[in-house]
Specification:
The chain has 247 residues and is of the alpha+beta class. It contains nine helices and ten strands. It starts with a helix and ends in a 5-residue tail after the last helix.
């Protein structure tokens, strides 16, 4: 009777076959969390922080990860193919928000949140929203109101805007709208208390402009109405804004 071991000579072992299959799968969520933290910390280690860093993780199947994103986001992010992966600051209303970016073969770029690739029964990214992401979405929802206030002051004065702190005249691009004297965080707390919600219970969905937006359209409309009736503002400079705890 021929030996089983002899008949398998020259063929891959079970462990090797499993390793080959694993290379075709997207990495685990824990692996992606560790990679994100590794490169995010590298950006934060310099002064000022780096805005962009190339991710060098050849063992990661980035295509499999991207194709696990929700449709049609997956095909948009994949685009014409992957040249490089970056961790970079994302253009949105908050400073310091970092996401993975795909550099396509044609030089264009697309941003994605790796957590969107793990929306299944084994992960809880969508069951409990992250505090920072919810605040980002709530701020984005009322951003037009802040722009409207700034435009109103600019139209009324027919000149440069003026800082309420220093009294210095400011050009449009140097003027920042700050929630004052009631902070945005206080408004958010009051709104959530009124609707008996925890911040982590506000469901989000992907937004190409700001990263996230409120999934419940009715809740988003109620938040805009509440904010319009309760919010008060002042104008400060971009330098003064950097010294403030809240905007």
């Amino acid at each position: 009777m021929p030996s089983v071991l002899k008949s398998r000579q020259g063929r891959p072992s079970v462990a090797e076959m499993r390793a080959d299959l694993q290379a075709l799968r997207k990495p685990t969520a824990k692996v992606m969390e560790d990679i994100f933290n590794k490169y995010y910390n590298a950006c934060m280690a310099t002064e000022p922080p780096r805005k962009d860093i190339v991710v060098q993780e050849p063992e990661v199947n980035w295509k499999a990860l991207i194709m696990s994103l929700p449709t049609p986001q997956n095909s948009t992010v994949l685009g014409c193919g992957i040249r490089k992966i970056h961790l970079a600051e994302t253009e949105c209303i908050y400073h310091g928000v970092y996401r993975f970016h795909v550099e396509h073969l044609d030089g264009s770029r697309a941003v994605f949140d790796f957590r969107d690739a793990y929306d299944d029964s084994y992960h809880t990214y969508k069951d409990k929203s992250f505090k920072h992401d919810v605040e980002l979405a709530l701020r984005a929802a009322v951003l037009p109101q802040l722009v409207q206030y700034k435009e109103m002051l600019s139209k009324d004065s027919q000149m440069e805007l003026v800082s309420h702190i220093s009294g210095v005249a400011l050009p449009w691009e140097k003027a920042v709208v700050q929630h004052f004297p009631i902070t945005l965080h206080s408004l958010i707390d009051a709104f959530l208390n009124e609707h008996q919600l925890q911040l982590e219970q506000v469901k989000l969905e992907f937004c190409g402009d700001h990263g996230y937006k409120i999934k419940d359209r009715d809740l988003a409309d109620k938040w805009r109405i509440f904010h319009r009736s309760q919010a008060h503002y002042r104008i400060i400079s971009t330098d003064e804004a950097m010294e403030q705890d809240h905007l």
